[in-house]
Write a structure and sequence with these properties.
- The longest helix is centred in the middle third of the chain and has 29 residues.
- The chain has 7 helices and 9 strands; from the N terminus they run E-H-E-H-E-H-E-H-E-H-E-E-H-E-H-E.
- It has one domain: Rossmann fold.
- It has about 240 residues and is an alpha/beta fold.
- The strands form 2 sheets. It has a 7-stranded parallel β-sheet, sandwiched between helices. Strands 7-8 form a two-stranded parallel ribbon.
- Helix 3 runs parallel beside helix 4.
- Strand 7, helix 6 and strand 8 form a beta-alpha-beta unit.
- Helices cover about 45% and strands about 20% of the residues.
Amino acid sequence: MTEIRVALVTGATSGIGRAAALKLAGDGFKVLVHGRDAGRGAAVVKEIESAGGSAEFLAADLADVAAIKRLAAAAGEIDVLVNNAGFSWFGPTADLEPDTFDALFDANVRSAYFLTAAIAPQMADRGRGIIINLGSMAGQIGLAGGAAYSATKAALAALTRSWAAEYSPAGVRVNTITPGPAYTGGSPRERLTALGKTTLLSRTAEAEEIGDVIAFLASPAASYITGAVIPVDGGRTAV
């Protein structure tokens, strides 16, 4: 009997998370679609199932560490964890309120940290597993107005290297991808289009192009890649 491979994708009800969930389902994973909106989650599950895949929606508020632990328990044995959930804030440093600063780090860093803490040891015990973190080009370069958001994404890159050192000797691969501008529905399309023109390819990515790289890292084709921070930004950070 063929073993069922399971992938948990956080923030999978829209944007890059949704694209990754659809790609992984197409590659034969049962996808646990995480989100907070049950209606949007059900729509993604239906889309996957309509294409012949297998999926289940799991709701959790990742700002709550207790909820993160419940999510990990509900998910069970996971083969692939995609830490995608989070949000961005851009503006003058002096305009960022402390509550929003805390929320950025809770959503972008703390949630990934404690979900990985709950799942990675089980992967290590089984001798296999894949963790993919969603960073950003903002974590690799200086962007005016992006100090706090960029810091959260730089933190994910640092966590990736440390987690690779901690878990890869036991067979768990840990990597980060750092997308550039992508049409995800989270920012005005005009702003994303303008930002895309600053890349070497002079365009903005579709969410599916980022999902393709996530699916690659979750595949046997990436079996010798761990501890890497991989740009998927149209060359924006290359020069």
